[in-house]
Design a protein that fits this description.
- The chain is α/β, with parallel strands linked by helices.
- It has 2 domains: 3-220, 3-Layer(aba) Sandwich (Rossmann fold), CATH 3.40.50; 224-298, Alpha-Beta Plaits (2-Layer Sandwich), CATH 3.30.70.
- The chain has 11 helices and 15 strands.
- The chain has helices at residues 41-48, 70-74, 92-103, 108-116, 132-144, 162-179, 190-196, 214-220, 232-241, 261-273, 288-298; strands spanning 3-12, 15-21, 24-25, 30-34, 56-61, 64-65, 77-81, 150-154, 182-187, 199-204, 207-213, 224-229, 248-249, 253-257, 278-284.
- The protein has a 6-stranded mixed β-sheet, sandwiched between helices. Strands 1, 2, 3, 5 and 6 form a 5-stranded antiparallel β-sheet that branches.
- The protein is globular.
- The two termini are 25 Å apart.
Length: 299
């Protein structure tokens, strides 16, 4: 395990922000650390980076205890917490050269990083003129400059448009698949993490609700059919009488387990033919809130 914590607990005064957290992050993985805002994700990351002092429990990184091997461990970690620390009046390349000088890293490494994050063509452009996605990629380039084994990113897609999110996702996949890095990424976006993570940990109110491979998560996050209808209660009862499993009904929607597209077509035809007009029918995944409920119900 690249990251291995046991019973990690942290309090701000009387408030427990991280509660007995045991993280297991395998080497060569993209570990998605999921949770809503305020769940304890950033506090956990600050503990992993030794920006906050451990109060209870232990942290082992690269199979070594963090406190007693702090400098050796941190020299092998690159990090980006929320917004990249870049000088807006300098170009992308100048930002990297400045960091390389501080870290005593050869200048050729700067060119390699620009190429890796696809910023070579914008190398001489002022960072203040970069899009949000470009700024995030520059921030990741700065974190990778020292060639760390582990990259820790706190909400790197926060505030990005769809193109920016895709740019960051593709970069992280390249880092793991072609450059043998391990990536620990926090996010509150379940769908985004599912697209790139190999392993997932889900935290809420400082407590780890789920930890496992992405395949294990997807068994909990089975897709469902959402039907928008006029009289949902009557339509749902009709479906039940016809041996369909209805999992949830509200004022506007009926939800059933998704089995196939053919099954969706059958449901649509059956309701319409029997006087229950359908305004929309689609397949969807659970959002983070519904997944939390599924996990706690299965616990």
């Amino acid at each position: 395990m690249v990251i291995d914590t046991e019973g990690l607990t942290f309090n701000f005064g009387k408030q427990t922000v991280v509660k007995s957290l045991s993280l297991k992050v395998p080497e060569g993985s993209i570990y998605g650390f999921l949770g809503p805002n305020g769940a304890g994700k950033t506090t956990t990351i600050k503990l992993l980076l030794n920006l906050l002092k451990t109060q209870e429990g232990s942290i082992r990184i690269f199979e070594k205890e963090l406190q007693s091997n702090r400098i050796e461990i941190l020299s092998q970690i690159g990090s980006l917490i929320e917004q990249p620390a870049i000088y807006l009046h300098l170009s992308g390349k100048e930002n990297l050269l400045n960091r390389a000088l501080l870290l005593q890293i050869p200048e050729k490494r700067v060119e390699e990083m620009l190429e890796l994050v696809h910023l070579t063509n914008a190398a001489h452009k002022k960072a203040g003129q970069y899009s949000l996605g470009m700024k995030q990629r520059l921030g990741i380039a700065l974190a990778l400059l020292s060639d760390p084994k582990l990259l820790i990113l706190d909400e790197p897609t926060n505030g990005l448009d769809p193109n920016g999110i895709i740019e960051v996702r593709e970069l992280l996949l390249r880092l793991v698949n072609h450059h043998k890095k391990t990536v620990f990424i926090s996010s509150h976006l379940l769908a985004e993490v599912e697209r790139m993570a190999t392993h997932v940990g889900i935290i809420n109110y400082g407590e780890l609700l789920f930890q496992g491979s992405i395949d294990e998560l997807q068994t909990l996050n089975q897709p469902q059919v959402q039907i928008e209808a006029e009289n949902t209660v009557d339509a749902a009862n009709f479906l039940k009488r016809n041996d369909f499993t209805v999992t949830e009904v509200d004022e506007h929607y009926i939800y059933l387990p998704f089995t196939s597209k053919q099954n969706m077509a059958e449901i649509n035809t059956l309701l319409n033919r029997n006087g229950y007009p359908i305004y929309s029918i689609n397949k969807q995944q659970k959002d983070l809130e519904k997944l939390f409920l599924a996990i706690t119900q299965n616990a």
